[in-house]
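Q: Hi! Curious about what DedA family protein looks like structurally. Here's the sequence.
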Amino acid sequence: MDTLQILLDFFTGYGYFAVFTVLLVCGFGVPIPEDITLVAGGIISGLGYTNVHWMFVVGMAGVLAGDGIMFTAGRVFGNRVLKFRPIARILTQERFEAVQEKFEKYGNWVLFVARFLPGLRSPIFITAGMTRRVSYWRFLVMDGFAALISVPVWVYLGYYGAANREWLMTMVHRGQAGILAVVAALLLGVAFVWMRRRRQHQCVKK
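A: Let's find out. The predicted structure is below.
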């Protein structure tokens, strides 16, 4: 039985609570695909078990809560959080150094991109909290902005594809590539604006 079917069986029985719980667990670094979880939530809405708009709200709450707990744990406990074995497995020394390099290179935008990097999402959020690079509200804005791109795509895709699973899975794979393309375009746009303002600022100084 594949992951999607297992999630569907669970969600059908327990509805919104089940979806929220699994998304919360995803935020802790447990290897359950977040996109498939959201798609499954959309599917049960398409089959009439839940309301799709409320499922979108639950999806947003679940992903932000999971991410927020990781960030808060790092911020509150600092390096002591690494004494907790599950977190120590997620945030190895190699990953910690890799995340530090990404922050140095891309700044706070790493928090936005993290939403689309399943293997690095939790390490990035924990590190951001540990190093106190950003405030909680800045973190919430960056992560929330990214979630507003990904969550509705997966939930409503599951909703509209509930009756045609083959078409749905094809669109899921295309959606993964499409979201990455959108994110890349946004980052390029931000980089272009930043470079342009920097040049204008330098010209003013001269």
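A: A fun detail: The CA atoms of residues 102 and 110 lie 7 Å apart.
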